[in-house]
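FAQ: What does a multi-protein file look like?

Like this. Sequence, then tokens, then the next protein.
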Amino acid sequence: MFLESMAHLPVLPAEARRILDLARTDRATARKALAQHSAADQAKLLLETPISRRTALLDLVDQPEEVIPALPAADVCLMARSIGLEEAGWLLSCATDEQLQASVDIDAWDGFVPDQMRLREWLAAFADAGEETMLRATRVIDFEVLVLHLRQRAIVVLKTNEDDWEPPDGGQTIDGVFYFVPRVMGDDMGELLSLIGTLFNNEYWTYFRLAQGAIWEIDVETEEWAYRWRRGRMEDLGFPDPDDARRVYSFIRTANLADLPAPSPVHVRHPSEDLDDEEEDPYLPMTMPPLPTETTGEHAVFRAMAALPDKDRERVRQTFLVLANRVAMADSLPLGEPETLEETVKRAAELTSKGLEHLMAAHGLAGADVLMRVSLERLFQVGHQLTPNKPAKKDEADASS
């Protein structure tokens, strides 16, 4: 994969490497070595470990119920997907309500509407985690999302008082009042019935509203409200609004491609940092992969970063990761998939480097000097403009199908 293929990048932190190497011959001792760190330090070590190796390290955590809640919500989603949702029930049982909600917000949507197949996978994972986790999930997933999913999976029939009324064929019921008939023949609705049963046993009036909503609610209005609630939370997590993110593809006139506009630096705040009283800066929603730090790297933008003074290099590095985050939103890539991080960093690096090299050649400047004068977003736009038109990855898949 893109990031791991770079030989000059540290694949593992030294401590993570030591513990994983130890686990090959003595897992018990490796567990004890990891347990010597505090829960917060174990969480930090997990985040510093490449996604492809986190599962192995996570398997050695002795008390996941203390470590997992210390992780950023978006990273829990990535880790669950890395493990495989069919095997991630134990992880989700340790997750906080915020982490459960963020996982669905990040991974179970397709554009402006819920992705029903992915939501189905998450509901199955919550069911596998146990009734307590399923109940917590139903309390934090937007009611509108649950209504849409129930309407998509089943026809809900309300028993009437008519003497000749008969239950619908294939309908399943918990209370003899509402009958749930699968829309697709052969769909056992396992995880859906688990959700319905959990609500019936613990939150009856939510169950009642859900069944009624599946009968009477209008899809378009329900989708609009669901998207509004989710959009606000995504922005709180650090994901920009998709329409705003698409600004990275703004058109630049050919005559202006080599211009040197004023720089527009940005400081990125991490969730662990205190907010300034005057301003709320954007921050990264999840732990991003490390970037090359040598002047001989493959991409011009990383070579130029390496030549910057330490303070400026960190600012530009953070700004680049914000740009990669915006590219992921603009390209409508699946945010819950671990590969998305690598794809977006690679795309951002390629196009930003192309724009950087264009300005370096046009003005005879070193890459570091251009970075101090031109925003990375502008360089990305120039690079995109200089690249022959090619559909985004999602569009390519749609076209091929």
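And here is the next protein:
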Amino acid sequence: MSKRLPDAERENPDWLSEPIPIGVGDVEDYAELPIKENGEPLVAIGPFAGNDYDRLLTDSLYAGERENSPYPPESLEGSLVTTFMREGTSERIRQAEELLPEGYHVVVWDAFRTLEVQGSLYDFYRAKLAELHPDWDDEQLDAGTVPYVSKPSRDSKRPATHNTGGAVDLDIIRIPTEAETRIQEIDRRIFEIGDSGDDWEEVYELERERQDIFTNQAEPLEFGAVRDYGDKQAAADYFERLSETRSLTPEELEARDNRRMLYNVMERVGMQPLASEYWHYNDENTQMGSRVAGQAEASYGRAWLSKDNLTHELMRRQHLSGAKVYAEDAVATELGDSELDTLLKKVASETAHPRQTTLPEAAVIQPEDVS
């Protein structure tokens, strides 16, 4: 599908390289903002979502969906294969995708988190920080952890931002021209087929081909720190600050410019940055996003998965599990010979293993110098 970037901005994309303001997203006391919950639902984004957001690329880091994750599949209690967001946040991310130059795409690798995942990540980072600073008390350990992982909270007035469904972790990848052309052809064909369900076999094959292109032909952009790197180099304005002290190397300039591109498209659609993590953005309806945007109240409290959300998650888990089985033994006679089995075997033989990827690697989120 064609990008809906205004012609004037296509011809002069200088706004994408506007500097990231020093200190942007560095806020305190955001949890004191009142929340007037607007009741907006969580919706699925990415493959098979069947909505306006199913063209977005997702990479479920904490569920270990692909081999670039440091977490083995299902090792984090409460992790989700499906990426869920508030509907308004999903629309903002869709708009951000459309602002990128041709061939560039956002990759969403985390959004809504369950309390179990939030707690696991918080406890792990805090424990590693305690190893690094055995003399720190509980208050110091909490203060050192919160910039990178919000403390899980059951308090409806003070939810962790990811638990609202209005926070998103993402970066940008580039797709080679020929592959991008094929993706656009696939999208047009799926749009033509529509929601009739009559040609579900063709839609399935096209979706798997699309995922295979994204996950195995993606060219990761340089951001100067891997996903979930838990130290100062992860700060959104790190290279802006560094450039005030010395000249940046070519690699650092590339990382700075890529962070600027991400910041500028996200800021334009109403997503607010987190100072300590270049990849993390908050909808201005969350408490943290509202504080950065200078608003008096938030409208996203803690979110809950609906029955439809849980049904979709079960479908995605079954699909991923089945795809792995066929990829690892696509010709096994015991896998059956029904029409569906035949289709799955065919797709498995034509695409890479579903965990294989060229998408950017991630780190286990922990403080620097702790292994």
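Q: Is there any per-entry metadata?
A: Some entries carry free-text notes. For the entry above: The CA atoms of residues 25 and 275 lie 4 Å apart.
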